[in-house]
Every structure is written in C-alpha cells, then in structure tokens.
Amino acid sequence: MPPAPTPESKIPHTVPSSAPLPRILCLHGGGVNATIFEAQSRSLIRHLQHSFRLVWVDAPFFCDPHSDVIHVYGSYAPFRRWLRWLPEHPEIDAESCIEEIGYAIRTGMEDDDRAGATGEWVGLMGFSQGAKLSASLLLEQQAREDKAKREGSADIGVGPIGVSGLNWRFGVLLAGRAPLSNLNPAVMKSSALVSAKDISEGFQFCSEVDDEAKLREKTIHVHGMADPGLHLHRKLLDDYCEEGTTTLVEWEGAHRIPLKSKDVNKVMEAIYDVAEKMDVKVTRTV
C-alpha cells in the first residue's frame, strides 16, 4: 500500500508586513530572556506571523539561567526574571517590583511603536513565569473594569504598564501555574493572590479562590502531560479561571514549548478560535 500523501500546508508562502497587524505581547519565563523565548517559539511563529505582530519583551531583573536552557542557550546571557521564585533572589517591595515590570513592558511596547507598528494590542502570550504574569495582567485589567463598573464610571484608568487605552482580549498561557500575582494591591485584596514581592513557590493556597482572584478574560492553556508542574498548571485553569472562559490544549511533552506540527496545530486552532470570538481577524494556517 502506498504511503498516505502528506497534507498540503495551509501556511501562506509570503509573510505579510507586520506593521499594521494586531499585536501580541510575548513574555518569557524565568531564567531565560526574550531572545530565547522567541527561538523556542519558532514553530508557533511560522503560523502566528501571518495574523499577528509578535513583540518580545525582556524582564527587568537579572538571575541565573534556568537549568533547562543551559545546554542549548547557555551563551545567550544575560538571563532574566519577572518575579522571585528562589530565596536567593533579592528582596524587593511590591510597589517597586510592579513598577519595574511595568516599565520594562512599556519600554518594549513604545520601542515597537517607534519601529513603525500601528496594530492594536490584543493579546498576551507567556511561557511558565511569563504565563503567570500574562494571566496576572489580564486579572489586573479585569479588576479595574470591575471597580469602574461599581463606581458607575466608564474610565477604567491605567494599569501597571502605564499605557492608556489597553484592552487585552485574550491570553495564551504556555505552562502557566498558580497562584496569580497581585499587580494592583490598591484595588485587589484577595488572599488567593501572591504579592509581587513574595516567592510563589510554597504558596499557601486558600481553600477557595474568591471572585476577585478568578479570571474571566479568555485564556488558552497549553499543558504538557510530562511537565512536573502540571498540578499547578491545572490549578490555574480549574481554580483561578472562570468556567466557560478557558480553552485547554494538552500535549505529550515536558516543560517546554511545542515544536512538532501535530502539537503546534492544536495550539494554533485554539488561538484562532478564541481570537475570532474576540473579534480579531486571523489568517488560518491549520
């Protein structure tokens, strides 16, 4: 029997100019940097670049490289982090940490504007600690929206990034784990959130996550079935996200970003579905 024909790729041969495309802010994990995250995401980029402009931002704090990347990316220093996860990471107060995170992201966004990009900021995509931060930024936006609604105001104010008019529509959370970080302690008081100054490893979870800490924005959760942190990824999905707002993609991998077509295609289908539901036009490549 002859072998089955290879399905023809739906990826267009020509990559469009990204300047006018809707933009996704890409946040790397802890112990890596934006350059490494971009390299690790190469299979996703082949698809995403036809619908979105991807903007890769470096975290503000330096740290040792993550053990998972030393072999391949050991020469890609400096390595960075958004939040503390080890006791040896220098202590910092929550206000300063949030300010530094906001400044780093705002600088990356403004640099992209200066590079000629004009598309609307529509989504966040993060891996590991970057996924935690992406979900936390969505929750912070939601908290300001809820506060404005309670006060009968149409103005939700400006969040920690310091850019007015942002409206994140969805988040792509690659191996994102609970708990979420409190990026606006003046508005959010939930004990289910970890302070930006604290180490989240060993966090004492509440028996129940209250509504203030529960994310209702659209999120896509990508879980590797061999990831040692899978129980915390599932906790983020099940406990910290409102039922009916999430899309789950599971694949047979460890703590890394999918590379093989059969895994990447599932992630892309989920992203396209959610983006279209949020009125973002996409060019489907799968």
Task: Give an account of the 3D structure.
Pfam families: FSH1. Residues 22-266 form the Serine hydrolase domain. GO terms for molecular function: hydrolase activity. Keywords: Hydrolase. This is Serine hydrolase FSH. It is a single chain. It is globular and about 65 Å long. The longest helix has 22 residues, at 129-150. The chain has a single domain, classed as Rossmann fold (3-Layer(aba) Sandwich), CATH 3.40.50. The chain has seven helices and ten strands. The mean pLDDT is 96. Helix 2 crosses helix 7. By secondary structure, the protein is an alpha/beta fold. Strand 5 (121-127), helix 5 (129-150) and strand 6 form a beta-alpha-beta unit. The protein has helices at residues 34-40, 42-48, 70-73, 94-114, 129-150, 230-239, 261-277, and strands at 23-27, 53-57, 61-63, 79-81, 121-127, 170-174, 181-182, 194-195, 218-224, 246-251. The chain has a six-stranded parallel sheet with strand order 2-1-5-6-9-10, sandwiched between helices. It is 31% helix and 16% strand.
